[in-house]
Amino acid sequence: MEPLVQEHSMTIGLAGNPNCGKTTMFNALTGSHQHVGNWPGVTVVTKMGHAHVGTVEVDIVDLPGTYSLTAYSEEEKAARNFLIGTRPAAVIDVLNADALERNLYLAVQILELGVPLVLALNMMDEVRRHGKDIDTALLTELTGCPAIETVARSGKGKQELLEAALDLAKTRDGRWEPLVISYGPDLDPVLDEMEAIIAKAGLLAGQVPPRWVGIKHLEGDESIIRRCSEAAPEASARLAALAAKVAAHLAKTLRASPDAIIADYRYGYITGIARQVVRYPAVDVERIRMSDRMDQVLTHQLAGPLAMALIIYLVYILTFKAGALPMEAVQGAFAWLGKTAEAAMPDGLLRSLVVSGVIAGVGGVLGFVPLIMIMFFLISALEDSGYVARMAYMLDRVFRIFGLHGTSVLPFIVAGGIAGGCAVPGVMATRALRSPKEKLATLLVTPFMTCGAKVPVFLMLAAAFFPGSEAGVMSLVTLTAWVSALLVAKLLRSTVVRGESTPFVMELPPYRMPTLSGLCIHTWERSWDYMRKAGTTILAISVLLWAAMTFPGLPADRAQFFDSGMASAQEQIDTAKAQGQEAPELADALQRLGAQRSEEALKASAAGRAGVALESISSLAGFNWRVNIALVGGLAAKEVIVSTLGTAYSLGEIDTKDAEPLSRLLAADATFSKAAALALIIFVILYAPCSVTIVTMARESSWKWAAFAMTFNTALAFVAAVAVFQTARLFI
Predict the structure, then answer these.
(1) Cα–Cα distance, 609 to 552 (Å, whole number)
(2) 110 backbone dihedrals φ, ψ, rounded to 5°
(3) Which of 157, 469, 516, 526 could form a disulfide with 376 if both were Cys (CB 3.0 to 4.6 A apart)?
(4) 3-state SS string for 357-380
(5) Which of 363, 272, 438 has the alpha carbon at shortest distance from 661?
(6) Distance (Å, rounded) from C-alpha 336 to C-alpha 331?
(7) pLDDT surpasses 60 at 653
(8) How does residue 38 score in pLDDT terms, banded at 50, 70 and 90?
(9) Residue 108: which residues within 8 A CB-CB, separation 6 or more?
(10) How far is residue 215's CA from residue 223's CA, in Å, rounded to a whole number?
(11) Quick one: which H or E segment has residue 191?
(12) Would you place residue 71 in the very low, low, confident or very high pLDDT band (cuts 50, 70, 90)?
């Protein structure tokens, strides 16, 4: 009989917390085939041993017991240096299964490095003796790591453990696949920026993932920071500046440091796993922490969604109740400013630009700042408290029905799931999804959410056509956005984006009491970003659209017709006044003639002609030519819809006596009905994302899918708007 061919040996690390039974497991795996040595650069003693799995010789390195890989202690340095320097084929993490949450913290850090990992659930006899059980199959599914039940002191499970490690090593074939955990809205954008800098500079390239290096900078890991500084001083300085900036921000807003936030989210991730895999035959109330007690209600299958709906409704109630007077004051101030500028400036293009292009355009957007600030304040309170993460946890069950992943909730929320977000970071947040198909489906429907750019449109329509019911309308808009996203996702997952679903693990950070200073800072940052956009991007687009709505202007013969008619009417009014008579009918005729001239001039402009040309189709959804102009402008940025309508109604005046807020002008337009307002809400929810979002979608997927989003979303939006308008006009 020919001797078996000996395959090449491979190195496997054995990691674990102190007192987890790791040494006992090492002895069970290697027997007498072990020796003691020192790991280079540290004084910690390291054991090495050998074992055989079939024809494969396995070198097992018993790493020092440690709770983390932060490299504060010699043990942590030894464990981390081994992983980075040796790059073992796999690592076995021995866990005290009776304290699963605490022991998984080290496992998560190893997974963030990308090391192939096997979980040894040790002391399973103690787990069952305490009346608990662990669903190892589900744990394997949720973590992506083989989970093997073991009892080290009896050797139970040791062979299965070695075989699992060998199989994983062969499957991965040296590839490291790092786990990506969301660290919340404050740290994730910084980590993305750091990751780009690290990758470009090639810092620790081929050794560790760029994101992991960024995390170490946020944690203040001196060893990694020093190595990066020596390799690339300029890039390291930029990383240090980013870390310092976000640390100062967190100190002001949450009174916490980046490493504390990172630890919170890691434990939240672990808690999300443990809750699903650990089975208790009876609930021991004394063991449940305050967060768990709150979650029993707030994440309950029935009570949780009801509480969530009530909370969102209260957000809108408070927003409109508290913001009504300041909003009217701001809108009134812009109306006064427009009238003052009109009276102070001579008639001509410059006055038209200032009054109709700048004041009416930008004022239409800034008029909603009081509502926006109040809404941002309340949403920041929900985020800082940790409740938003619970929303994601609850909604996973619903999302699975529609072919999405529980992690898809986070992009939805960031993009405006609770009104006021932004689609750009929402699209970027889809990176956390493991499945390319689930990521693509989420990316395509995330722009349906009620982002901060769309909110002014909905606020304007609610105030114009549903006075007194604004909170209910905004709640329904939010619900419609979610339902639309889920239904379209189901359609996409059943057709062009088919694929298997992946398991869900949700980070559940502990509840925090929001600080007033933190809420104010978050509110100001978001509101200032909104106002700055109004003063830059929206101003520039408003001026361009003003030009498009002004030129080429009326033909000479029509202009002469109106000018002579208005001059004749004014002359008759002056004659009547000289005779001490009032001529109200002449004044009304002059105003109507002026409004007719303005409207005809607007229709004769480049934008007006385009709007009128589209009206033959858009009228099916109840949209007039003014709305068409605004919707085309909204392709650049959704806030432009409001500013463009403001300019359109200012240039093409309807029959009103005084300057009025845009919502009143819209309500007074006989060509635009309540049914059309409902159709417009649906259209704005669904139609093509803004230009910046399209570019972001292309970067996160491809230009093919970005183009698909533009065409498919707009076609879907028009069909839905037509259906809503044609139905609503029968009842209202």
Answers:
(1) 10
(2) -65, -40
(3) 526
(4) HHHHHHHHHHCCHHHHHHHHHHHH
(5) 363
(6) 9
(7) no
(8) very low
(9) 179, 181, 266, 269, 270
(10) 13
(11) helix 184-201
(12) low
Question: Across-strand partners of 50?
Answer: 59
Closest CA to 90 of 195, 3, 177: 177
In whole angstroms, how far apart are CA 199 and each of 80, 102, 109, 208, 292? 21, 32, 20, 11, 40
Token couple for 117: 């990992």
Distances (CA, A) of 390 to 27, 153, 393: 43, 40, 5
For tokens 């921000």, the residue is 249
Specify the residue for token string 């408070």.
318
Nearby residues of 472 by Cβ (< 8 Å), 6 or more positions away: 313, 316, 466
This prediction has a pTM of: 0.61
**Burial state string for 528-559 with b = 16 or more CB within 10 A and e = fewer than 16:** eebbebbeeebbebbbebbebbbeeebeeeee
Give per-residue burial for 601-629: e unless 16+ CB within 10 Å, then b: bbbbbebbbebbebbeebbbbbbbbbbbb
Asked whether the predicted pLDDT for residue 281 surpasses 70, the reply is no
DSSP states of 646-665: HHHHHHS--S-SS---HHHH
- Written as six digits, the tokens of 600 are 């005809």
CA–CA distance, 266 with 402 (Å, rounded to integer): 28
Contacts with 349 (C-beta within 8 Å, 6 or more apart), sequence order: 550
Q: Which amino acid is at 76?
A: E
Tokens of 92: 């076995």
38-to-25, 42, 74, 94, 105 alpha-carbon distances in Å = 20, 7, 12, 22, 26
Torsion sign across C-alpha atoms 491, 494, 496, 498: positive
pLDDT in tens, 358-402: 887 677 667 768 877 887 788 778 877 878 777 777 777 788 889
**Residue 730, SS3 per DSSP:** coil
Categorize the per-residue pLDDT at 728 as very low, low, confident or very high, splitting at 50, 70 and 90: very high
Integer Cα distance of 524 and 531 in angstroms? 10
Bridge partners, 121 (sequence order): 95, 149
154 contacts: CB under 8 Å, gap ≥ 6:
none
Rounded to whole angstroms, the Cα distance separating 167 from 116 reads 10
Distance CA 232, CA 40 (A): 25
Residues 694-712, mean pLDDT to the nearest whole number: 89
Q: What is the mean pLDDT of residues 153-171?
A: 92
Task: Give residue 36's pLDDT.
Answer: 43
